[in-house]
Amino acid sequence: MDGLSATASVIAVAQLAQAVGGALMEYYEGVKSARGEIQRLYHSIRNLESLLKSIDDLPHTLSINFQTHLENNTGTLSLCKAELDGIKKELDTFSKQHNRIGKLKSLIWPFKKKDVDKHIDFIDKHKHDLMLAFGVENLALMSSWWSAMAIYADPFRHYVPKFMINLSIVTKNSTTFYFEIEAIINASSEFERFRIIEYFQTESYVSVQFEEFATIKQSSVHVSLRDHVILEDIRSETSAAQRKGERIQIIQWLAKSLPNPSLQHNIAREEFEEGTGSWLINGDNLNIWLKTDNSSTVIEHIRQLCIQQTNVIVAYWYIKFDNSTTQNVSNIIRSWIGDICSNRRDTPRTLKDAYAYCNYGQQQPTIKNLLKILKSVIVGLQDVYLVVDALDEYPKRERNALMKIVKEIHQWNIDSIHIFVTSRAEDDIRVHLTNMNEQNVAGNCQSIRVQNPNITEDIKKFLNKNISSFPQKIWSSELKDEVVDSIARQADGMFRLAALQLDSSKLRRTVSAIRQGLSQLPSSLDIFYGRALEDIPVQDQYYVKIALQWIAYSVRPLKVLELSEAVVVQTESSPYLEEDKRLSCEGDTFTLLDMIPSTFVIIYVLNSEDITSTLKEKLYIQFAHYSVQEFLQSSRTSNGPVNEYHLQESNGLESIAARCIAYLLHAGSFFKHPYSGILDVYDRFPLIYHAALCWTYYIQRLETQSNDSFNLVGHLRSLVSLLISRNQATSNNHDAWRISQIICKDARKKIPYSARMLALAQDSLEIELDSSISVPCPLSWASHHGLISLVELLLSDTVCDISPSDEYRKFNLGTPLHAAATGWHFSERIVTLLLAAGMNPNTSCGELRYPLVAATHENRLEICRLLCKGGARLDPEWSVRGETALQVACRKGYVDICEYLLEQGADIENIGFADKNESRGNTHNILNRAFADSSMTPLLLASKHRKSAVMEILLASGADVEAVYYACTPLQWASGAHDVQACRLLLNSGSDVNHETKSILFQGWPFFGTISWTPLSRAFLPFKLGSQSIYFNTNWLVIIELLLKAGADVHAKGGPWWYDGPMTTTILLCLECTKALPKSMKWGE
């Protein structure tokens, strides 16, 4: 039996030991009660694996005795393999049972203590036999090496002491030999050392022997066994996984555009009063939940558990009423998945597949798919704690969707999932949680109410900390204790009410007044807020009402300077803003802030490090607490004595939109085309950025909230007509439209963008009004953003011209039809209106040139149907990328649209406007790559972009499997992309496995010539996976096997320029790549 066969056996058993070790890691993570036994068995098996890898590192010229010892059916290696097979079978059996259980219960450890002892004793015994055999083999190899080297010793013998090369020393004491040559070199002078090493390196035979000695010595070092601590290995694997490129890309994809919940958590911990919340951690309810206004306390407690234990993860989310990005179900689930995945030692296949399906991070998955991913990343973990703070701050009309998600996760009945939510007792939340509790069979749904004596003690701690800084002259220790006791008793468990009551007491000047105030403290937040509104002077009430609307419904953080400007805009008629009615804004003193009750708002500084802005330009305003906005929007206010301050979103949005447009019209009256020499735009009009960027969003919000029933009426209709309608065109409103669009173009460089994205764009204090900028026509703008009421208004305008114009062509929104096809809301209705008005669907302009191509690009099947019925051409002569709609559908993998276009008669071999003669040839100049995708048939495109589902449709429809572009057939593209499914599809459809193509090298290289390619040689090129270049993976080996079985010619010349240039044969590429395979692939990882 040869050495290679013995080595293969060693590798096979090492792979098996490694697989068992991985399974034991999973059991260690999932079975807490058996971790001691798992650790012992893991240590024994991992040491066996280390020993086997050391044996594999020996030269393949093994002695006959050692080969027999390894290969014999009754030998040590075979017995070890049988033992490991038995352990693996038991572990897999229980694991499969676990996976089949619908409730995904915890893993069950299949061995008793005596079974583990038996396995360990068996493995250790045979491990020691292998170690002994390994030592003897090492000794024989070293003696052989030394005998060979003795022949060549003369050239350097006079440099070293003679006793150092006495063979008797080696044969009697193998330990001495391990460091023999090192001793010789180290005992020599620098010159002697140089001569010895130079000799070893220059004499070929000696060099080979010297390298072999290094291998032997390396093996002897590696055989030393160590303690394998499974927990350390798990953490090491997790840490290594976190550094992997693909894992990093997936985590970044999940976190894209997400607010970081740890920032809010850190704020909560900074405000945390030491000692408060301990009742929650130590209480019976939470203890039950763990085996299952204090979320940060719970999170910190669980984080300590995570540090102490492996496989315990906490993922949390803070919902903020003033941050809409926290009020998004997709964001919450993505954040949870990212947190959990970051702490796993593996990346679940479900998550990898979702990443690939979403064009390697270019798109986001649906809620349904996110839940599948969440479930997959949780399975196998010991405990996962999902924490949501302030559920009540999620918008009420959208809260039902979030509650359904929480309910669905709870109904998975996965033992390792623990959900903790905090909320005020809102009716809809109470109903959902009560239903969950009633439907809960296991009794593991707990409700913890915070109105109990423990909360009163926490409030006292909070009050004591704040009152400690009050001046001692009036505030004696006795008075402080009296105030703290009184407020804590009346606060009814509400920290917010206690804080307001303490602030109210602080304003009183005498001890008598303070004590009198304690007896008059409001007993609820409603009473407190109501009194504050009743105290507003009559002359300030108008400004406060408008200010409260803006604070409540502004889409972007609101500056105090902007708000001071907004409250003085009038919408009834021009002039829309009178200079002498502006409120004073000097330094950090704002008249408006003296009008609004101080308990309602807080002022904060944003971008404090910005030295280019003055203080007043960095001051922002928001409600001090969610309870303020909730009170103003509630029926308690509308039916109470301060009902004039009641807030309704539709009224608020309409008022804000009207003021934004009126402000733009006001600014337009000051600016005259071509706007040269205007440098102080922001100083003169502080609200102009907000007005220009946000008016579209406010009207869009009104449209979407009304469920198609919104109608422009009153002042808003008049103002919108002035801004967009040519029927009422004047120099003022024309300039207002242009100025607003120039600001939008400056804020968002590339379309398409949503109205919300535009509204949240970062503003600049330096506005450059460039009159040369092309701006879209109002009809295209309204069509793109789904402002259906504006579209109807414009189409009813007798001056509105829907024929093709330069105005459409200059801006990348294109015609109204093109804009609607890429739009965000009511696109189908708007396209129907535009077609009914006579708009031509074949007018060429816009970023994607044709409406049908644009609709396909956005995966809008219904709009494609409407456009085709309206006369859109399937294969137009030219588009910006040169692509037809079918090519776009194939490139992006849109199966439904691809099927529909083929049904309508789209040319399955259409290659756009490219030079068809050159594109279809087998030889291709690599310089001719402009509009590359447009020069490819749909099947070539689908192959290149790994869209197997589309390829099935195209192949079933008779697509040419031998089409060529860029010296590539579809099979060559699939092979080069390491796409196994696509290769199988093409081979099954009759694709030529030996189709040879040639690339012409361009003359900028040192030489000029051609490179030949076949599907097999293409497999040896790296391919792009997201932003990574992938050279070797498991699919690569499968691809080569597929092609070889299909008859690929291994003697064909060509392929990548690695060693021998374009004349390398494929079989040589196979051998070279096998040498370069990562060790992990050799070991089957």
Automatic annotation (TrEMBL):
Highest taxon listed in the record's lineage: Eukaryota
SMART domains the record matches: ANK (SM00248)
Record carries keyword Iron: no
InterPro entries linked: Ankyrin_rpt, Ankyrin_rpt-contain_sf, NPHP3-like_N
Transmembrane segments: none
Metal-binding found in the keyword field: no
Keyword annotations: ANK repeat, Repeat
ANK repeats: 812-846, 881-913, 934-966, 966-998
Pfam family, one: Ank_2
Nephrocystin 3-like N-terminal domain location: 291-424
PANTHER family (UniProt xref): AMELOGENIN, GPI INOSITOL-DEACYLASE
Protein name per UniProt: Nephrocystin 3-like N-terminal domain-containing protein
